[in-house]
From TrEMBL:
Name of this protein: Conjugal transfer protein TraA
CDD domains referenced in this protein's UniProt entry, alphabetically: ParAB_family
Bilayer-spanning residue ranges: none
Species name: Paramuribaculum intestinale
UniProt-listed InterPro entries: CobQ/CobB/MinD/ParA_Nub-bd_dom (IPR002586), DNA_Partitioning_ATPase (IPR050678), P-loop_NTPase (IPR027417)
Pfam families per UniProt: CbiA
Domain (CobQ/CobB/MinD/ParA nucleotide binding) ranges: 7-192
Length: 253
């Protein structure tokens, strides 16, 4: 049995996009690239990904266009939707391991959606047992300061401890405003580099499509869903494919 790669898009500031990135990457890698994915929603107590799956299932029940797309995709890829494990952060690793070791599925990637606070011992332990951490950051003062503080805390207080599994951590530019000057991000990256923090090359734009979910009554293309992959037309210009390629290169999958 192969060992799956444990990944978390993690930061402590709400609004940075960690849950959206987790869902988009899970759906793209599973439904489009064919990788076997397990999602662990341990963002206690709100469990945002579970709520998204529940909404998707309800839309599937009442929206015929959404149901048609779902059934056509299921027939094409011959797969049920990827599983979502709901658990408290302190139990996340044990419960994920139990699923993996059951041997029912040979997972490639396990994606964790963690709570924002790193001061909780259960969260800190779970973070320490990730293989890779991608920390979303935006050119917003509060998000920037919070994400930087989170990354430095992980670097200084988690990655230095014996038994830590983290191989690499990267900052990830999200919600990039096309009107911002490029050199603004380059100056911030110089600060990251001074703090010995790596930055992914791919920058994700601030685009409304990232929030495009299924609708109970409208027959529209969907970008963010736990039951469907991002729509092919909406993928254009999203940089999601480039992000997936860069991450898969880093984790060697």
């Amino acid at each position: 049995m192969k060992e799956p790669v444990f990944i978390a898009f993690s930061t402590q500031k709400g609004g940075a996009g960690k849950t959206t990135l987790t869902v988009l990457m899970a759906s793209y890698l599973y439904y489009v690239r064919g990788l076997k994915v397990l999602v662990v929603d341990c963002d206690y107590p709100q469990y945002s990904i579970k709520e998204m799956r529940d909404r998707d299932v309800e839309i599937l029940r009442i929206n015929s266009a959404f149901k048609k797309n779902f059934m056509e995709q299921r027939e094409r890829i011959q797969r049920d939707p990827y599983p979502i494990l709901i658990t408290k952060p302190e139990d996340a690793l044990d419960r994920a391991r139990a699923i993996i070791e059951s041997g029912k599925e040979d997972y490639d990637i396990v994606l964790f959606d963690l709570p924002g606070t790193i001061n909780n011992p259960g969260v800190a332990k779970t973070v320490s047992l990730m293989d890779y951490i991608f920390c979303p950051v935006a050119a917003d003062k509060l998000i920037l300061e919070s994400s930087l503080a989170f990354a430095m805390k992980v670097r200084d207080e988690i990655m230095t401890v014996s038994g830590c599994s983290v191989k690499d951590m990267y900052m990830l530019w999200n919600l990039v405003d096309a009107r911002e000057k490029t050199d603004l991000y380059e100056r911030y990256e110089e600060v990251f580099e001074e703090q010995m923090l790596q930055t992914l090359k791919t920058r994700l734009p601030d685009a409304k499509k990232y929030r495009r979910e299924g609708s109970k009554d409208a027959a529209r293309a969907v970008f963010r869903s736990t039951l469907l992959p991002p729509d092919k037309n909406l993928l254009k210009g999203s940089r999601l494919v480039e992000l997936a390629d860069e991450i898969l290169g880093i984790i060697k999958l």
